[in-house]
Specification:
mainly beta; Elongation Factor Tu (Ef-tu), domain 3; SH3 type barrels; 2 domains; seven-stranded mixed beta sheet; six-stranded antiparallel beta barrel; 13 strands; 45% strand; elongated
């Protein structure tokens, strides 16, 4: 365990979001290289503190590994990755010891977006509705957001309403829950209501 981990006494924020993973050292002066997750670069570059978490706890307790804060001196993009200099990490050897750590930033520290921009973490868990015969029909719940290189794609766990109006997984003949991949573009997703955790689209709902 590093000195930074041992001395960290500040409780981790409750709204931490995993945005990337340290893949190794960058250069000889203690910089680390991070592979950001989907749409994670903006928040990583703006944050002055990254919360780091090792992938496996030193002793298995059933709890996730403890996160500790790392003060960011400098950060910038380097190709498809982000590189950064952290307080207390002065050489390549120290930086390499952080390889595999996940990098987290509080959701409250994310930069403000414009009216037509959204963070993927805010879309996950939203209910999305599609269309069937000109009517708005439940499609399912957004499980994940992916990037195909051109635009974001919503991975939706399909759901249906039972006779009591409760949501149930939409299961195929082989007993598998069906999914839908919906391009997150204005041509298909025309309304985003994060306050009510609802998305409306024209994506066809077929049963």
């Amino acid at each position: 365990m590093s000195q930074a981990e041992q001395s960290a006494s500040v409780a981790a924020p409750q709204d931490l979001v995993e945005l990337g993973r340290i893949t190794g050292a960058y250069g000889l002066r203690g910089w680390v290289k991070i592979q950001p997750h989907t749409a994670g670069s903006t928040a990583l570059l703006s944050a002055r503190t990254w919360w780091l978490r090792r992938p496996v706890a030193p002793v298995h307790t059933g709890e996730p590994p403890q996160a500790w804060p790392a003060e960011v001196h400098k950060s910038r993009t380097q190709g498809s990755t982000i590189v950064g200099s952290l307080r207390g990490i002065a050489d390549r050897t120290a930086a390499e010891k952080l390889r595999g750590c996940t990098v987290w930033v509080p959701r409250s520290a994310f930069p403000v977006t414009s009216d037509d921009e959204y963070y993927w973490v805010d879309l996950i868990g939203c209910t999305i509705y599609g269309e069937q015969d000109g009517r708005s029909v439940l499609l399912g719940t957004v499980e994940d957001v992916m990037d195909n290189g051109v635009h974001a794609v919503l991975r939706v766990k399909r759901q249906v309403l039972d006779e009591q109006g409760a949501r149930q997984p939409y299961i195929d003949a082989k007993g598998r829950q069906q999914e839908a991949l919906v391009p997150f573009v204005s041509a298909h997703v025309h309304t985003v209501d994060l306050d009510n955790r609802r998305l409306d689209s024209n994506w066809p709902v077929d049963f």
